[in-house]
Design a protein that fits this description.
Elements lengths: L2 H17 L6 H4 L7 E2 L5 E5 L4 H6 L6 H12 L8 E4 L13 H18 L3 E5 L1 H8 L5 H4 L4 E5 L2 E8 L2 H4 L3 H12 L1 H6 L13 H7 L6 H5 L3
Parallel strand pairs: 2-3, 2-4, 4-6
Antiparallel strand pairs: 1-3, 5-6
Bound molecules: uracil.
Length: 226
């Protein structure tokens, strides 16, 4: 079995595990766990905040108005959902769509890290403040860092973190929508690895790390996160 197939299987096992998760009280109020969706071998991973009502009902990420905008932004750069993976910081809906709480983020972050470790994207595009602060490990908010690629390691995988405004915020603010479109326009070059600003000078690329996985090795067991 190819390395990508092994990782896809491990991602499916992670999803099954997640569907029964009771790590935090959000599990009591959810209808469905929103694990994430897309290509398990995607070069581009989007990370949003948390499921809303539509996502909680359908089990799919970004299916409301913000999701429509995300689809349009993707189409604007010649891409579609099936070429990327879309996940969230939290996999269960916070009541009334309130902000994620620190203890909920702590309970759930291992799952997101596991997803990054299994998908091994080149670029992780964080949508809004929560995903950006979590994965950058920095306190700067999205209005300061959007559109600026940052080389980071997530769960041992070197990736280019690329923060952009959350589509839900851009739905209501015209200037933010313009910034979001401008920031999206740089994504193809970042994913292709041709954007000089985005490359970490010393970091071996995620795909080099990908090639280093022994054929047949189970990446889930290597990480031991669940
Ligand atoms: N839908 C999601 O799945 N995530 C968000 O952050 C917002 C809407």
């Amino acid at each position: 079995m190819s390395d990508a197939a092994v990782r896809a299987q491990a991602l499916e096992r992670l999803s099954e595990h997640l569907r029964g998760c009771t790590r935090c009280p959000l599990s009591e109020g959810r209808t469905t766990v929103v694990v994430g969706a897309g290509d398990p071998d995607a070069d581009l991973l989007f990370v949003g905040e948390a499921p809303g009502a539509n996502e909680d009902r359908t089990g799919l990420p970004f299916v409301g108005q913000a999701g429509k905008l995300l689809d349009e932004l993707l189409a604007g750069i010649g891409m579609s959902r099936d070429q990327v993976f879309i996940a969230n910081v939290l996999k269960c809906r916070p009541p009334g769509n309130r902000d994620p709480r620190p203890d909920e983020i702590d309970s759930c972050r291992g799952y997101l890290e596991e997803q990054v470790a299994l998908i091994r994207p080149r670029v992780v595009c964080t949508l809004g403040n929560f995903a950006t602060k979590l994965l950058s490990g920095r306190p700067e908010g999205i209005s300061k860092v959007h559109g600026q690629p940052i080389p980071v390691e997530v769960a041992g995988v070197p990736v280019t973190l690329y923060p952009v405004y959350h589509p839900a915020a851009a739905l209501y603010t015209r200037a933010m929508l313009g910034s979001l479109q401008d920031d999206f326009a740089r994504l193809p070059a970042l994913v292709a690895g041709g954007d000089a600003e985005a490359s970490a000078p010393d970091a071996p690329h995620a795909h080099a790390a990908r090639a280093a996985t022994a054929p047949g090795a189970d990446p889930t067991q290597q990480l031991g996160l669940f």
